[in-house]
From TrEMBL:
Cofactors required: thiamine diphosphate
Domain Thiamine pyrophosphate enzyme TPP-binding: from-to ranges: 98-244
Annotated protein name in UniProt: Thiamine pyrophosphate-binding protein
Keywords on record: Thiamine pyrophosphate
Family designation: Belongs to the TPP enzyme family.
Family matches, as PROSITE patterns: TPP_ENZYMES
Organism encoding this protein: Micromonospora fluostatini
Pfam families xref list: TPP_enzyme_C (PF02775)
InterPro entries: DHS-like_NAD/FAD-binding_dom, THDP-binding, TPP-bd_CS, TPP_enz, TPP_enzyme_TPP-bd
Length: 255
């Protein structure tokens, strides 16, 4: 909290536009970082990229201290991610859309984030782009299955992309994390004194919509259902949808 923040950007108008800064530098971020580093004394970091650190990371369990609980009508998203961690193919491309739901796969799932195998289409801050990016990733790398995470509100903004997925027939597993709301907006409206019900909507049978368009789909509301769905859908040979009804009261602080 006492850090001095300096903004660096080639565009002067961008400095401090999103976050308050104490000072600004107009310049290329990489060149500026190298120039600052040249002025600082060398710092020894013996633990960075060491075998001991690699072993510690490999043994770490991101789910160890999470209080996970699922009522009968909705699964805790952390419990679902724990099942995903054990069932999703390691050699996959992972696509995570924009929204509160994205915090769960981003923080709790391991992925081989090399060779463009992790796609985060957040550049425009737009919801609804996860599925079209996933189709593109599958077409671009047909040798690698794609697992895409989207929210229910995000999918509703572009339902036509389900038809694109059906027609292309690419091996894309679309995981819809459904909290019956625009989850990020629910959490942003209330502190501003605005009724969060404006960002909620009735539950929809998105699995039925997918099946109507020719995409196999399963609805998940508990851990047993999640395991059964993965038994049915894996190994992934074509498009599929998991419509996962998640607890809306579980909040991801770092989305």
């Amino acid at each position: 909290p006492d850090a001095t923040v300096v903004g660096v950007d080639v565009d002067p108008a961008a400095i401090g536009a999103r976050w308050p800064v104490a000072a600004g530098v107009v310049g290329d971020a990489g060149e500026t970082a190298r120039a600052v580093s040249a002025l600082l004394a060398p710092v020894s970091r013996p633990d960075w990229r060491s075998p001991d650190l690699a072993a510690e990371l490999a043994a770490a369990d991101p789910f160890a201290d999470l209080p996970v609980g699922s009522p009968g009508d909705a699964i805790d998203p952390r419990a679902f991610m724990r099942i995903c961690a054990g069932r999703l193919p390691r050699g996959r491309t992972t696509v995570v859309g924009v929204g509160h739901f994205g915090g769960w796969p981003n923080l709790l799932l391991d992925s081989v984030a090399t060779d463009r195998s992790f796609v985060a289409p957040w550049e425009f801050g737009s919801i609804g782009v996860g599925l079209p990016f996933a189709v593109g990733a599958a077409v671009g790398r047909p040798d690698r299955p794609v697992v895409a995470f989207e929210g229910d509100g995000s999918l509703l903004t572009g339902l036509g992309e389900l038809d694109t997925l059906a027609r292309v027939g690419a091996p894309v597993l679309l995981v819809v994390l459904d909290d019956a709301a625009y989850g990020a907006e629910v959490r942003k409206l209330a502190p501003r004194g605005v009724d969060p019900d404006l960002a909620r909507f009735p539950g929809r049978d998105l699995a039925a919509v997918a099946r109507a368009l020719g995409v196999p789909a399963w609805t998940v509301t508990d851990e047993a259902g999640a395991r059964a769905a993965f038994d049915a859908v894996l190994p992934l040979t074509g498009p599929a949808v998991l419509h996962v009804r998640v607890r809306p009261d579980v909040v991801q602080e770092r989305f």
